[in-house]
Amino acid sequence: EVGETDCTNNAMRTCVTDANGCRTWNSVSCPAAHQCDNTSGLCAAAASNNDTCANAQPLTFYGDKAIAVGDTTNANSTTRGTCHGDGAKDRVYAFTLSTPRSVTVKATSFAYSGGLSVYIRKTCDSTSPLDEVVCAEILGWSWSNGEKTTTASAGYLAPGTYYVWIDGLGA
């Protein structure tokens, strides 16, 4: 189907013609520090030591999506959002917008206990509510195939750099 994506040899392929199924695929190699995610068919930022602002992992958009694969197990508790996260391990990601756009962050946990909060900030290390664009936590969870998902929708953001924190709930 046109627009369908998949992964082949760490490259993201997209179907560009569809007569009776895909006949032509455009292939784009994933950039350094990215890997092709077989579930989504998109290049995703590889896990890194991104638990401080100095090590914020950059997110790269492919069309309207940016995907990162991470794990808070070995992270530190660096900050907290206005909705939760105090004392829990967290990871930070960064993205830059060149034009205004609507942003929604979806975080999925594969753990069967604990919780997850997601918040977007204009200033990475600020805990001021004025610098936080949105914060979402356990109230937004949904279950699907044993996964827990929370979604933070920020609406339209002005051009600039933003920071996405993925944080556990509680110590």
Overall mean pLDDT score? 77
Using only C-alpha atoms, the radius of gyration works out to 17 Å
Please describe the biggest sheet, giving its number of strands, its sense, and whether it closes into a barrel. Answer: 5 strands, mixed
What are the segments in which pLDDT stays under 50 over at least 5 consecutive residues? none
Question: What's this, in brief?
Answer:
The chain has about 170 residues and is an all-beta fold. It is built from no helices and 14 strands. A five-stranded mixed beta sheet has the order 6-8-14-10-11, with no helix packed on it. Strands 1-2-3 form a three-stranded antiparallel beta sheet, with no helix packed on it.
